[in-house]
Amino acid sequence: MSRLREPLYYAALWLISLFFFAPIGWIVLSSFKTRSDILATPPKLFFAPSLDNYRALFAKSEIFGQIFNSVFLSLGAVIVAVLVSFLAAFCFSRLKPRGTDFLMFLLLSIRMLPGPAVILPVYLMYAAFGWKDNHLALLLFYAMFSIPFSVWILKGFLDGVSTRYDETGLVNGGSWFHVIFKVVLPQVRPGLIAAFIFNLIFVWNEYLFNFLIGGVKTQNIPYALMVGTYSEGGLNWTFISAMTSIYMVVPIAFIFAFQKYLLVGMTFGTVRGEV
Amino acid sequence: MSLATQTPGRRRLMDNPRARVLVLLAPVMMFFIVFNTIPTLWLLGLSFYKYSLTGGVPPEFIGFKNFVGIFNAKNAIWFDLSRTFTFVISGVAFQTLLGAALGFLFWGSRNMPGRRVALTLLFAPMVLTPVATGTFFRFIYDPTFGVLNYLIRAVVETGPIDFLGNPKLAFWAVLAVDCWMWTPFMTLMTLAALGSVPKAELEAAEIDRVPFLRRLTLVIWHHGKFIMMLGILLRTIDSFKTLDLIIPMTKGGPGQNTRLVALELNKQSFESFNMGWSSAYAVLLLLISIAMTSVFIYVLNLRRRKETEG
């Protein structure tokens, strides 16, 4: 490429990226506006920034509970899910019991089903047993929902680790426990990270299940966002913009820090590589 | 003492191949039996009952009447299904075309300054919760103070446009947000597909001066088609599930113009509490999802077979 064309090419790519980011940028910008600036016509690009929306947001004590719920549910569910999924993925990859393909298919099909269809029977079960609005019950459901994705990702990575390692470990007197956790586990670290990060983003973003089988005690940020939308008579835009801006720091920071896992994470581990 | 007796015991257990499988699978299976298998069987059973959660009447067995009702009703499933498939097909087609075009554009960007930041900005839409996205697009679409109206009216002379309130526009306005969210995903897949093309073959084609179109069909498509197909399938399945993007924007309205199958099920089960009817509806969606998952796995296996053949 010639000297002049290269900067132009990169500038064009940057413009495209900024175009896709523009709506997000606009909401972040709005979070620093006062209510009257947000509702101004024509919309204001330049204004006196204020932190009042954030102050108002953190003045309410519920927000800390909601942030705690989001962190607790997503971390807890994902740790449980990745741990048990690793064992299952090891089993599917190495021992290949009969029905492996069928089980893998069943796992995947859960994630392919529209949310209300997944949650409808679980809702009835939780209502019958009185498990609604309970942190542990919700966490376990999220763990179940994170398992298919983790098993798929981890099996893909485990298939790429030669069975020679297992054999060497066993021949040299290591227990299965040793082989699984000390020999094989360290080699699929990228898979563990990908499963961890993308499940975390999923649970962090989840609204429907939290709304239906959770409740006021367990509500996470998306749920709070949905409920808080209509406070103070009409749409509460100052709340929405501040809450959204705070909430999305996490997923955006993750895809920046873990960009090389993005492809694996968005395709259930079926496509590998970096972008 | 206790340690000495435990360790050989565990090793003996793990030495039996069957027991090994059981031990490793047990935790996942337990999760699934409690949170998935039992509920799914419950769902299947309930689909043959007339059961309203609010009525206080015990469930009544009615055989296949729920299913018959779904296909016969005035606002039958066909309208929702056809609306959903319009949403899926036009959305996925647009996202694939634009996404692939952008993918080709980003192909040569290895040495771009700030590439990581730029890609983070580009991929940000798809990792945000649709609830937040839907809400802030309502803000952007707003007819009085929305920025989009302002931008349009700066160019074209027109009255305020109520994107989400106008029955003719709402569907396309919602679809546009879906495209904004997911076009970057197809760009990602295109980049992956292009990355899977061996460099040597590309260089050979370049040295042989193969025209770009022929290079595209002979070399690039040959290597990249599976990844593209997986991308399109994942997008199709995901787009079929669309729900929480639409709830904050239109809740399925105006009228029923943005009511997709997932929204209808959500409304019938958790607003009207028609549990029997909804179960039947969910069973139908389950069948559709299973069919789509099968196609996905079929393509995945095609790719595996091709890889092992070389």
Oligomer: heterodimer
Uncertain residue ranges of chain B: 1-6
CATH C-level class of chain A is Mainly Alpha
Low-pLDDT regions of chain A: none
CATH class of the largest domain in chain B: Mainly Alpha
Explain what this protein looks like in three dimensions:
The complex is a heterodimer of chains A (275) and B (310). Chain A has 275 residues and is mainly alpha-helical. Chain A has one domain: MetI-like fold (Orthogonal Bundle). The longest helix of chain A has 34 residues, at 62-95. The radius of gyration of chain A is 23 Å and the shape is globular. Chain A has helices at residues 5-30, 35-38, 52-59, 62-95, 100-111, 115-129, 135-159, 164-171, 176-184, 189-205, 208-213, 221-228, 237-247, 249-257, 262-266. In chain A, helix 3 (52-59) crosses helix 13 (237-247) and helix 4 packs parallel to helix 7. Chain B has a two-stranded antiparallel sheet. Chain B has two domains: 2-36, no CATH class; 61-309, MetI-like (MetI-like fold, Orthogonal Bundle). Chain B is an all-alpha fold. The radius of gyration of chain B is 25 Å and the shape is globular. Mean pLDDT of chain B is 87; it is low at 1-6. The termini of chain B are far apart. Chains A and B meet through helix 1, helix 4, helix 5, helix 6 and helix 7 of A and helix 1, helix 2, helix 5, helix 6 and helix 8 of B.
Q: Which characteristics define this entry?
A:
heterodimer; A: 275 residues; mainly alpha; 72% helix; B: 310 residues; MetI-like fold; two-stranded antiparallel sheet; 13 helices; 74% helix; disordered N terminus
Describe the secondary-structure layout.
The complex is a heterodimer of chains A (275) and B (310).
Chain A: H1 5-30, H2 35-38, H3 52-59, H4 62-95, H5 100-111, H6 115-129, H7 135-159, H8 164-171, H9 176-184, H10 189-205, H11 208-213, H12 221-228, H13 237-247, H14 249-257, H15 262-266
Helix pairs in contact in A: 1-13, 3-13, 4-7, 4-10, 5-7, 7-10, 8-9, 12-13
Chain B: H1 2-15, H2 17-46, E1 49-50, E2 60-61, H3 65-72, H4 77-105, H5 115-127, H6 130-141, H7 147-155, H8 170-195, H9 199-207, H10 212-240, H11 246-249, H12 261-270, H13 275-309
Antiparallel strand pairs in B: 1-2
Helix pairs in contact in B: 3-13, 4-8, 4-10, 5-8, 8-10, 10-13, 12-13
